[in-house]
Design brief:
The mean pLDDT is 86. With 71 residues, the protein is mostly helical. It has a domain of 37 residues. It contains 2 helices and no strands. The longest helix is centred in the C-terminal third of the chain and has 19 residues. The radius of gyration is 21 Å and the shape is flat.
Length: 71
């Protein structure tokens, strides 16, 4: 019987995107209640991911709508 060679896992060609920049913001009481209600209703487990995705979705949508035109 021949010995099987172990396959080595090649590192991904995609550059890892490490999050190194921190942004903090504050909610008032009503905003926090609404946020917590939404988190509980939709069973969101990762609040940071939810906020980041929601924020970036909004930003990218606005960039797409307001892109510069030549004419």
């Amino acid at each position: 019987m021949k010995k099987q060679k172990k396959k080595t896992i090649q590192p991904s060609k995609r550059v890892a995107l490490h999050r190194t920049h921190r942004i903090s913001f504050l909610f008032n009481d009503e905003e926090m209640k609404a946020f917590n209600r939404h988190i509980e209703k939709y069973r969101i487990k990762n609040q940071s991911r939810f906020i980041r995705e929601t924020l970036m979705t909004s930003i990218l949508k606005q960039l797409e709508e307001n892109h510069p035109t030549l004419f």
